[in-house]
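Shift notes (night). Ran Squalene cyclase C-terminal domain-containing protein while the centrifuge was going.
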Amino acid sequence: CWNSPFDAARQEKMDKVLSRSLSVILQAQNVKKPPNHAGGWRYQPNSTDSDLSLTGWCIMALRAGKLNGAPVPAANIEKAVKYVLKTRHPQFGGFAYHPGSAPNIGLTASGVLCLELCGQHGHKAIAPAAEYIRKSQPKAYDASMNGCYARYYYGQAAFQLGPKFWANFAPQMFKNVLVAQQPDGRWPPADGTCGSCFSTAMNILAMTPAYRQLPIYQRDQTYESEGLSAPGEQQP
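Came back to this:
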């Protein structure tokens, strides 16, 4: 757990489980797939297609494992980046669920977060995606499961895009979310497809990346320590 004392025995158990878990993820990526799906992930370990949503979660799992000391081959990260870029819509600058489908703000934010977590800071696809996110930001709270999911991703992506982008983006997001919070602290879902634990957790994660409580979500410190502009602060 975060901020808990180091427990060597517990860490040893985690390392064993972590190794097996990452092995499943890497094997699933290596399943033979058509060229436009190669490098990504889908819902089953033997799936022969991919989507950006599942790919995003698997990339975060690999990053978390690597931060914990697990070996993650660079070749697998490179393949993941190539798949993420296949889902980019060149006309609109956003990212989509599958290559060739229509982009939306949640998946565009997922694409940005994937590139950042894979070390692709300053990639030419990031600035147009940042502009897409900026222009697509909701002006009201969406209580659906998809709304909570998208908000989680664009909250995390906005933080990765740099201090200026975050400062301009976060206030509207906070306003949308906080007005919908119930007196008991939760955010109930609107469509019954998920419980309050999910929607509440996703809203908290969306609003709190600036607290840097989890290493996986921390922004690359190079941009701040050297006074550089983050990718989202560049002109598209």
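The CA atoms of residues 158 and 169 lie 7 Å apart. The chain is about 50% helix and 0% strand.
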